[in-house]
C-alpha cells in the first residue's frame, strides 16, 4: 500500500512525463500493481472461478506500451510473504474474502453494487502471476519472481544498474532508495508521474534538504508502512520532525525509547522494518544467487533497551538465503 501520505507530500519532486522520454532505458515493473489493475476488469470471473486471462492480457498490453515507446521492461512478481508482513497480509486476505462474500450475496439478490465489492476483494493469486509470466515469456518480455517482495528485488536491480526506473502504484520504491519512480502510469496514453529522489529538496510541504537515504527511510517507517505497526499520533510531518531532530538510527532509537508514549514493542518493530527494507533477501542480478539487498553487519545494529521484546525469530529467514527458488510464488496477495 505504500508509505502513508508520502506521494502528495512530494509534489515538488514529481514531474508529469510521457514514458518515451525514457527511450532506451531498462525499467522495472512491480508486477502485482498491474495484476491488480488487470483484475479489476475481470473481478467477477476471478471471484467465481470462471476461466479468464483478461488480467494477463492487461499486463501484456501495459508492457507493450513501454516496448512501443522504446523502453525495455523487466516485470517482477512477489514471491513469499516477508515475515514482518505476515500478520498484515492475513488481515488483508480476511478483509478481501469478506468483501467477496458480501459482493456475491448482493449479486445473488439482484444488487449490482456487488460488483464493486468483488473489485475491492478479489485476491491476486500465485496462479494469476504464473499466467501473466507465461504470457510475458511468450512475448519475449523479461519477467521473474522475487524471493520475497518484488519491491526489494526491483531495488536490487536498480542499485546494480540493471534498471534505471521502476513503474509501480505505490511509494515503497522510494523508501528502497530507487531514484526514478513512475506512478500513475496510463497504459493507453503512455503518461506517468515521475518522482526523483534526487529532487527531494524541491518538496513543497516537507523540508528534506540534507536528508540522506537512511533519514528518508526512517521517516517513511515512522509515518506508517506495511512492515510494521503505525506509531499512534505520528503522521508524515511528525515523523519528519523526529528524524530531523535525531538523524541517525542510534539517536532516533534513543529518542523513541525516552518517549513515554512509545511502547517498547514499537522499538523492536521499527528496527525489524528497517532491517527488512535494507537487508531483505533478493536474487543477485549477476550470479542469480540469493543474498541480502545490502550486506548485513550485525555489529552495526544498535542494541534495543533491555525491556524491549527481541527481534522476531522468523525475521532472520528473510535476511538469509531465500527459502524458495526462482520462479515460485508462495502466497496469494
From TrEMBL:
InterPro entries associated with the record: 5-3_exonuclease_C_sf (IPR036279), PIN-like_dom_sf (IPR029060), PIN-like_EXO1 (IPR044752), XPG-I_dom (IPR006086), XPG/Rad2 (IPR006084), XPG_DNA_repair_N (IPR006085)
Gene Ontology BP, a term: DNA repair
GO molecular function: 5'-flap endonuclease activity; DNA binding; exonuclease activity; metal ion binding
Cofactor(s) listed in the protein's UniProt record: Mg(2+)
Localization per Swiss-Prot or TrEMBL: Nucleus
Xref: Pfam families: XPG_I, XPG_N
SUPFAM superfamilies: 5' to 3' exonuclease, C-terminal subdomain, PIN domain-like
Any GO CC annotation of this UniProt entry: nucleus
Domain XPG N-terminal residues, every copy: 1-99
UniProt-recorded name of the protein: Uncharacterized protein
Principal subcellular localisation of the protein: nucleus
Region of interest called Disordered, as start-end residue ranges on this chain: 312-333
Domain XPG-I, first and last residues per copy: 137-208
Superkingdom of origin organism: Eukaryota
Primary role: 5'->3' double-stranded DNA exonuclease which may also possess a cryptic 3'->5' double-stranded DNA exonuclease activity. Functions in DNA mismatch repair (MMR) to excise mismatch-containing DNA tracts directed by strand breaks located either 5' or 3' to the mismatch. Also exhibits endonuclease activity against 5'-overhanging flap structures similar to those generated by displacement synthesis when DNA polymerase encounters the 5'-end of a downstream Okazaki fragment. Required for somatic hypermutation (SHM) and class switch recombination (CSR) of immunoglobulin genes.
Quaternary structure and partners: Interacts with the MLH1-PMS2 heterodimer via MLH1. Interacts with MSH3. Interacts with the MSH2-MSH6 heterodimer via MSH2, and this interaction may increase the processivity of the 5'->3' exonuclease activity. Interacts with PCNA, and this interaction may both stimulate the cryptic 3'->5' exonuclease activity and suppress the 5'->3' exonuclease activity. Interacts with WRN, and this interaction stimulates both the 5'->3' exonuclease activity and cleavage of 5'-overhanging flap structures. Interacts with RECQL/RECQ1, and this interaction stimulates cleavage of 5'-overhanging flap structures.
Record's keyword terms, sorted: Acetylation, DNA damage, DNA repair, DNA-binding, Endonuclease, Exonuclease, Hydrolase, Immunity, Magnesium, Meiosis, Metal-binding, Nuclease, Nucleus, Phosphoprotein
Keyword hit for DNA damage: yes
Amino acid at each position: 500500500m505504500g508509505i502513508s501520505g508520502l506521494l502528495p507530500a512530494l509534489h515538488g519532486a514529481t514531474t508529469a512525463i510521457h514514458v518515451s522520454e525514457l527511450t532506451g532505458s531498462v525499467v522495472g515493473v512491480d508486477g502485482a500493481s498491474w495484476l491488480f489493475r488487470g483484475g479489476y476488469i475481470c473481478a467477477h470471473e476471478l471471484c467465481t472461478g470462471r476461466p479468464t486471462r483478461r488480467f494477463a492480457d492487461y499486463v501484456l498490453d501495459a508492457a507493450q506500451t513501454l516496448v512501443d515507446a522504446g523502453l525495455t521492461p523487466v516485470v517482477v512478481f512477489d514471491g513469499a510473504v516477508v515475515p514482518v508482513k505476515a500478520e498484515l497480509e492475513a488481515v488483508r486476505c480476511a478483509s478481501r474474502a469478506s468483501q467477496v462474500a458480501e459482493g456475491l450475496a448482493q449479486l445473488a439478490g439482484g444488487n449490482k453494487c456487488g460488483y464493486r465489492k468483488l473489485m475491492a476483494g478479489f485476491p491476486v493469486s500465485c496462479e494469476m502471476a504464473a499466467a501473466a509470466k507465461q504470457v510475458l515469456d511468450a512475448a519475449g518480455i523479461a519477467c521473474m519472481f522475487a524471493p520475497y517482495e518484488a519491491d526489494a528485488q526491483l531495488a536490487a536491480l536498480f542499485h546494480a544498474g540493471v534498471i534505471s526506473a521502476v513503474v509501480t502504484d505505490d511509494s515503497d520504491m522510494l523508501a528502497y532508495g530507487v531514484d526514478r519512480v513512475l506512478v500513475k502510469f496510463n497504459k493507453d496514453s503512455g503518461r506517468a508521474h515521475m518522482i526523483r529522489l534526487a529532487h527531494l529538496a524541491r518538496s513543497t510541504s516537507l523540508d528534506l534538504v540534507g536528508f540522506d537515504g537512511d533519514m528518508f527511510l526512517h521517516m517513511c517507517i515512522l509515518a506508517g508502512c506495511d512492515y510494521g505497526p503505525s506509531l499512534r499520533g505520528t503522521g508524515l510531518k511528525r515523523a519528519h520532525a523526529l528524524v530531523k531532530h535525531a538523524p541517525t538510527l542510534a539517536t532516533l532509537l534513543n529518542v523513541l525509547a525516552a518517549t513515554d508514549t512509545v511502547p517498547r514493542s514499537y522499538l523492536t518493530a521499527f528496527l525489524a522494518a528497517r532491517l527488512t527494507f535494507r537487508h531483505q533477501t533478493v536474487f543477485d542480478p549477476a550470479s542469480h544467487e540469493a543474498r541480502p539487498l545490502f550486506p548485513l553487519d550485525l555489529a552495526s545494529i544498535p542494541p534495543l533497551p533491555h525491556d524491549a521484546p527481541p527481534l522476531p525469530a522468523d525475521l532472520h529467514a528473510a535476511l538469509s538465503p531465500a527459502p524458495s527458488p526462482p520462479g515460485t510464488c508462495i502466497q496469494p496477495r
